[in-house]
Amino acid sequence: MPRVSQDHLDARRRQILDGSRVCFARYGYEGATVRRLEEATGLSRGAIFHHFRDKESLFLALAEDDAVRMADVVAEQGLVQVMRDLLAGNSEHPADWLGTRLEVSRRLRTDPEFRGRWAERSQQLTEATRDRLEWQRKAGNLRDDVDVSVLTAFLELVLEGLVSHLAMGLPGDDLGPVLDLVEETVRRHRPGARS
To answer: What is the average pLDDT score of the chain?
Structure first.
């Protein structure tokens, strides 16, 4: 029996994640049936579940993949940049990412087991945000009258509010100045600088 290369396995896994992202965004978790997952990925159930134990493992892997991508942006440019990318549609899968994010939020409210499994994964984004803010503080760019943990919670709350705003179908094209205000809120105000 021929051996399959790691590159081939990685490409197949990526194909499954990309196709299932579209499926979960369009139909939600419950509506993403095995048949729909097969259609979205172009693969059989055997191929899909060779890589992922079950539908929940697939969904968690997808949500984790999105969280890793977000954490990478946060580490380099900050959480507000994640929000700007979402508004501008600059992320690789902006609409599908939003659908996945909304489904994660819904399941966190309704599924205690999922909440427990997701908690360890969501911590990555919080840590990336906190690390970025600590770095900004050491560089003298971050206000020093508010604890970094409070600023982290503030930015995460703004992100959740933005996701909710977009989920309601409200326009996001005029929110750039709002994100400017959010950024300005966490910056250090230097004496003599314009306010």
So the answer is: 87
Instruction: Note the pLDDT tens digit of each residue in 15-73.
Output: 999 999 889 888 888 899 999 999 999 999 999 999 999 998 999 888 888 888 888 99
Which residue(s) pair with 187 in the sheet? Answer: 142
Residue 193 belongs to some domain of the structure:
no
Return the number of other C-beta atoms located less than 10 Å from residue 67's C-beta: 21
Buried b (16+ CB within 10 A) or exposed e, 141-170: ebeeeeebeebbebbbebbeebbeebeeee
Of 33, 27, 108, 31, nearest in space to 63 by CA? 108
CA distances from 52 to 10, 25, 62, 140 (A): 13, 18, 11, 45
**Co-location of 48 and 70 in the same domain:** no
Helix residue ranges, H only, 32-175:
34-41, 45-51, 55-77, 79-88, 94-110, 112-138, 148-167
Whether 195 is covered by a domain: the verdict is no
Q: Residue 45 belongs to a domain with what CATH number? A: 1.10.10.60
Q: Are residues 148 and 176 in the same domain?
A: yes
83 and 143 in a common domain: yes
Of 68, 25, 56, the closest CA to residue 163 belongs to: 25
Judgement on whether residues 119 and 70 belong to the same structural domain of the protein: yes
Domain presence at residue 192: no
CA 83 to CA 66: how far, in whole Å? 13
The span from the CA of 34 to the CA of 147, in Å, is 46
